[in-house]
Write the structure tokens for this entry.
Amino acid sequence: MVNERDFALFTDLYELTMCASYFDNSINGIATFDLFIRQLPENRSYFIAAGMEDALNYLKKLKFTDDHIKFLKSKNIFKGDFLGYLKNFKFTGDVFAMPEGTVFFPNEPVLSVTAPIMEAQLAETFLLNTINLQTTIATKASRVVYAAKQRPVVDFSLRRTQGTDAGMKAARASYIAGCAGTSNVLAGMKHGIPIYGTMAHSFVMAFEKEEKSFEAYSGTFPDSSTFLVDTYDTLKGVGKAAVIAKKLEMNDHRLKAIRLDSGNLASLSKSARKILDKNGLDYVQVFASGSLDEYKVEELLEKGAMIGSFGVGTAMGVSKDAPYSDVVYKLVELSDHGKLLPTMKLSKDKVTYPGKKQVYRVADKDGNYQEDILCLRDEKIKGIPLLQKVMEKGKVMGKIPSLEEIRKNAMHNLSKLPDKYKKLENAAKYSVEVSQGLQELTSKLNKILKEKL
């Protein structure tokens, strides 16, 4: 993982070269940038906001060290006076953001930065990187959790996420989205996420007989063992697990679960359940894993699979079917000697809305979400404002929510999003209306800009 002290250089070179030219030309008006996602990936109907805590910590601590300045100087790209500016650099701006765990939709700013343009510009790469990854994974994980229909889902993705940083962020984002826990022990220590584990096939194969591996493992963990039963013959493995479970009972211990990791999981889970129940082991859970995603989980349950919980790895931890979100960071307003100048992009298919904004959420009498309204920040709209001021003059406002509070917020948001928007395929499209004030400003500025072409 990148050391926090080096985050100032965790940026694209052009962020620095643009700032060097701003510096040369004495351009450092107050700029506002909106971070939003242009469009939904296929089979997505919403996003779960994640990564805000990392974003705030980054802005709060952003600093160029002597080593950073020395490295940049060695490239012979930047002038000495600009490097002097970087040496004393700190973020002094304001930030509005949706709380982590908030459900949001395309073109809604999930974060808005207002600061001297060099400060706001330099933040772009890190903010895009951290919010893109964590929002993408949280959204994917929320779909898996939804498909599991209140059965626990455990994040098993660590070994296939793209590096240590992604592994940690995937565990956190998955937990925010409703996963019961993770196999990632470091995430358990750093974030307080419940940790889960079973055994590998190698453990079973290390013993002369399958039942000996079960005896050995349960001898070490008499009340928390999950036996992996599909190394050789799955149903014979379940039978052997049942025998060991009865022996544990004689010593006032209980087998926690058996794990199915391959084969026809729907059929095998039903047969396994019958074997366990026949032996009076109704308390032993059937845990399933093995290349699962939300579609497979949904299909298994539709087939009546007798599975009590799921371990979901690669497909969730890398968001296999949609591994990134079309997240962007666009200039929407700039001051010129105290005069505010809303800005917008006119590129085909990439037009942006100008001005500082707010998003209001309209709900019915039961609190269920009906529609959102994207508007200018100073417009008065009925509804709940989603963007909150979280940083002022470079200082974080209030206390950053705990992970449990963020998770609770996500669960509340998802519970208020009607099921028609959460379907895995062919979900309804959520309404995001653009206010009259924002439409008028957009039309006016569009006309002005085109006249200048």
